[in-house]
Amino acid sequence: MEYIKEVFAKYDKKCIRVYQAYNRTIAEEALSLQTFGENFNLNRMTWIKPSFLWLMYRSNWGTKKNQECILALDIYQDKFDSLLEKAVLTSPDSILFDGNQWEKAFGETTVYCQWDPDRNINGNAINRAAIQIGLKSDILRDFLDTAIYRIEDMTSLVHKWNEQRKKGRLNAKELPSECIYPVRDKTIRKRLNMI
């Protein structure tokens, strides 16, 4: 199956929304500080995901261990765009690099891009890809310091929607509305294998 590779997200004129799942300690601290605090491990890579339903698939609607709390992060669009400019695919399928060029770029970057099949409310793959962006090292610290406009707790809503879903009563129109986020730069599109 050929997947549509575009960034599908909820966004406005200033921010784009991404999602993450954490344990209660990290989530409550992040909500209080409106960034991530001392319980957040800066030495690990963190992944931000614009697709709400992909994160629901990944976290099993906030029921997996250490993924019980679902956070929505509204991040500034210019910061998100900057991440896309720096991102390198996690596998060498870009038409911009040959294998050696990709290895060099992958070894030097601190921003990673991965495409996975996006999901519907029941966790089934659909014909578009969901982007994940991985951050580590200095770029992660900068992200925490300068990129986050607001952090919102979606945990109780996710639990409500999951109960409705299990009973066959969830209307997908209630979920976050996502559309194509414009990525017009041709170099970025080639490097991230966007079609």
The N- to C-terminal Cα distance equals 13 Å
Radius of gyration: 17 Å
The oligomeric state of the chains shown is: single chain
Low-confidence stretches: none
Structural class: alpha+beta
Q: What gross morphology would you assign?
A: globular
Strand order across the biggest sheet? 3-7-6-5
Q: What is the number of helical segments per DSSP (H or I, 4+ residues)?
A: 7
Give the strand content. Answer: 25-35%
Sheet with most strands: 4 strands, mixed
Calculate the mean pLDDT score and round it. Answer: 93
Estimate percent helicity: 25-40%
What's the number of extended β-strand segments? 9
The sequence of SSEs as H and E is EEHEHEHEHEEHEHEH
What does this structure look like?
The structure is a single chain. The strands form three sheets. This protein has a four-stranded mixed β-sheet with strand order 3-7-6-5. It has a three-stranded antiparallel β-sheet with strand order 2-4-8. α4 (99-108) links the parallel β5 and β6 (111-119). The longest helix is centred in the C-terminal third of the chain and has 12 residues, at 155-166. The chain is an alpha+beta fold and 195 residues long. It has helices spanning 24-33, 52-59, 77-86, 99-108, 137-147, 155-166, 186-191; strands at 7-9, 15-22, 46-48, 69-76, 88-89, 111-119, 125-135, 148-153, 179-181. Helices cover 34% and strands 27% of the residues. The model has no long low-confidence stretch (mean pLDDT 93).
